[in-house]
Every structure is written in structure tokens, then in C-alpha cells.
Amino acid sequence: MTKGGLDLLNCSQTMIKLEQLQRGRVYRLQSRNLESGVWNGKDGFVGIRTKFGRRFLDMEIHWDLSGTFGTAQALESLGSIPDSISLDISLGTECGNCHQAVNYVKCHEEQKGATGEWLHHDGSPNCYAPVQGNEAVKASAVAIPNDALFAELQKYDCR
Fold this sequence. Notes:
- The chain is mainly beta.
- The chain has two domains: 2-89 and 145-154, no CATH class; 97-139, no CATH class.
- It has one helix and 13 strands.
- The strands form five sheets. It has a five-stranded mixed β-barrel. It has a two-stranded antiparallel ribbon with strand order 1-2. It has a two-stranded antiparallel ribbon with strand order 8-13.
- The longest helix is centred in the C-terminal third of the chain and has 8 residues, at 147-154.
- It is elongated and about 60 Å long.
């Protein structure tokens, strides 16, 4: 029998039950894209995924929490992530030009077209990035990667 393209385990006793999972623990997984991952305490595992030669943090939803999108189940406990390290994939959003914090602000309903824009902490949509000289450029939002979690999860990587 399969679910979401994954073969079900023949020995269900080897799967760690959802209620036994501990936030911050790293588990060997049966999943679509992750070999191991840390249980985030809510809905899934965060682990290192490789796609087109690029390695990055990604999350898979626990098998029992979504009949449609659940693709991961824990098979064995491997260790734990220190409490001081966030279990989030990213640590926020910054401007890719000037590296200042940016926030997404939705437009008023009466405005047609765009639903919002990225603004710097001072409320401006523009920044003065040194590479652009004195020309104002629009904020370019990029995720701040969680390098500390990536480094910890590499310790459990089988590659």
C-alpha cells in the first residue's frame, strides 16, 4: 500500500508514534525528500533537502497530520538540537540590496492591482544600496537562512 507515492512500512512497530515525538529531537525519517529531520513540535520535520545539487532547509508534514500532504514519519531518534537554536527554516526577511530588515505591508482594499509591498523599517519601499550608487532601488526581499540549524542538522547527514 502507498500514500503520496511512498511505500508504507511493513513493520509499523518501527515507526515512532506522533504523540511520542519530542520537539527538538532529530529523527531518521521515511519521507519524500529528507533522510533525517528535527521535529518542530507542531506539524512536521525540518531537515536538509538536496535539489538540483543545492542543499537547503525544508519541511515535510508528519504523515498522520495530513491525508493529502503528509509525507514524513519518524523511524529512529538520532539526537537533539540545542534549545538555543531556532527550529524555523528562516530567521526572517531582509532586503537583498542593503540587508536591512523589511516587512510586507498589505495595500488598502481600495487600491487595485498589487496586494502589498515590502517596506524597510523606516516605512520606505526604497533603499540606497552602495552597488546602485545614489539611485534608489526597490526593496528586494530575501529570506534570512537559519545557518545554525543547518550546521546542526549536517551532523546527522548521511552524505
